[in-house]
Specification:
The protein is built from 1 helix and 10 strands. The protein is mainly beta.
Length: 145
């Protein structure tokens, strides 16, 4: 099991937390003093009040919360954000309102989830040919509906 070191900032009231025993992601909360209202298609960067230190070979993935996405159209601007092991700044969440209605993010509201994942850097090898496959160069939708 990997260890995630967390530094709590003065404006943090809730540490990340796994809500169930089998949860893959831990919830991140908005470390804000006042509500933040997002109009349709408006975006903002929401602080979480934490800094993290990952072990070598790991990343933190920031993902939308499914409930906020389906019920309110609140998602992340970059869908899945990556926090590299050498980043030491505050974890902030870039949210966007994709709905037709305004949405208000309340202080300490759960706004995203963070997953810790093992990563490996690839060795780059430039070649003149790639092996053939059945799919070949077939792109979007090429394997059927």
């Amino acid at each position: 099991m990997t260890v995630l070191k967390i530094k709590r900032l003065p404006h943090n009231k809730n540490l990340p937390e796994y809500k169930t025993e089998g949860a893959a992601g831990m919830d991140l909360c908005a470390a804000i003093e006042e509500p933040v209202t997002l109009k349709p298609l408006e975006r903002t960067l929401v602080p979480t009040g934490i800094k993290i230190e990952l072990e070598h070979g790991y990343e933190a993935q920031i993902r939308p919360r499914s409930g906020l996405s389906i019920k309110h159209g609140i998602s992340l601007i970059n869908c899945v954000g990556t926090i590299d092991e050498d980043y030491r700044g505050e974890v902030c969440v870039p949210v966007v309102n994709l709905s037709n209605e305004t949405y208000t993010i309340e202080p300490q509201e759960r706004i995203a989830q963070m997953i810790i994942a093992r990563v490996e850097q690839a060795k780059i090898e430039v070649v003149t040919e790639l092996t053939d496959t059945v799919r070949g160069a077939g792109g979007f939708g090429s394997t059927g509906r």
